[in-house]
Design goal:
There is one protein chain. The protein has 247 residues and is an alpha/beta fold. The protein has one domain (6-236): Acetylglutamate kinase-like (Carbamate kinase, 3-Layer(aba) Sandwich). Helix content is 36%, strand content 18%. It has 8 helices and 11 strands. It has helices at 26-41, 58-62, 68-92, 114-122, 140-150, 185-190, 198-206, 221-227; strands at residues 6-11, 45-50, 97-101, 110-111, 126-130, 156-160, 166-167, 179-180, 182-184, 211-215, 233-236. The protein has a 9-stranded mixed sheet with strand order 4-3-5-2-1-6-10-11-9, sandwiched between helices. The protein has a two-stranded antiparallel sheet with strand order 7-8. Strand 1 (6-11), helix 1 (26-41) and strand 2 (45-50) form a beta-alpha-beta unit. It is globular. The relative contact order is 0.17. The model has no long low-confidence stretch (mean pLDDT 94).
Length: 247
């Protein structure tokens, strides 16, 4: 399998925490930045969609009585903090970066403009997408799928925390859970497998966007995923588990 021409990495906020219970671990942040830098050096055009769960989870906060839309907007601000931290780490690694946000915050980032984002990617700049889709009730998984489709990415790379792919049951609760090397979109939806939220999964299925689910903690996993190495679980439409080869 060759490297991707252009791919989007979906990083959860928790992926930046390392062993910390909250916030950002600088060592983990720099490690992720180095892997992205290595992929850029190999010619991959890299987009990143980032979550904010290390600071705030809108759905969880809403359970305490806060208005869900308000809680989700607060979560979007958490994703912007993460994007700025990753931007800084990437720049220190020698990468040219642009952060685009779905909520206008012009003092610190560009607004999301599709054609501008594509132009940045063509110029080998890493583009970080923050603030989700800019809408409450939409997860950052959905934002990652949407931005990957909008910017013509060849794959959506889902970096999970402590889970090295898609299983038929929760491996943390069921020791007999078995991992899939490949699963179709329809199987993932029908079996309610924990790939991503159903809106994001349906969007990928409609647009035939392959999804790679892998453990962010495995050695250089982000780099290997971006390079197109076989890693984690492939989710695609092909029942044989073949995805169109990257360029």
């Amino acid at each position: 399998m060759g490297r991707y021409r252009r791919a989007l990495v979906k990083l959860s906020g928790e992926a930046l925490m390392g062993d910390r219970p909250f916030g950002i671990d600088p060592v983990t942040l720099n490690y992720l930045a180095r892997q992205i830098s290595m992929a850029v050096d190999e010619g991959v055009e890299v987009a990143v969609s980032i979550g904010g769960g290390n600071f705030w989870r809108g759905a969880t906060v809403a359970e305490t009585g806060m208005d869900r839309a308000t809680a989700d907007y607060a979560g979007m601000l958490g994703t912007i903090m993460n994007a700025l931290a990753l931007q800084d780490a990437l720049e220190k690694a020698g990468v040219v970066v642009r952060t685009q946000t779905a909520l206008p915050i012009s003092q610190v980032a560009e607004p999301y403009i599709r054609r501008r984002a594509i132009r940045h990617l063509e110029k080998k700049r890493v583009v970080i997408f923050a603030a989700g889709t800019g809408n409450p009730f939409m997860t950052t998984d959905t934002a990652g799928a949407l931005r990957a489709i909008e910017t013509d990415c060849e794959a959506l790379l889902m970096a999970k925390n402590g889970v090295d792919g898609v299983y038929n049951a929760d491996p943390a609760k069921d020791p007999t859970a078995t991992k899939y090397d490949h699963v179709t979109y329809l199987e993932a939806i029908q079996r309610r497998l924990q790939v991503m939220d159903i809106t994001a999964l349906s969007m990928c299925m409609e647009h035939q966007l392959p999804i790679i689910v892998f453990d962010v903690a495995e050695p250089d996993a982000v780099f290997h995923a971006l390079r197109g190495d076989r890693i984690g679980t492939l989710v695609s439409s092909d029942p044989e588990g073949e995805t169109p080869p990257p360029h």
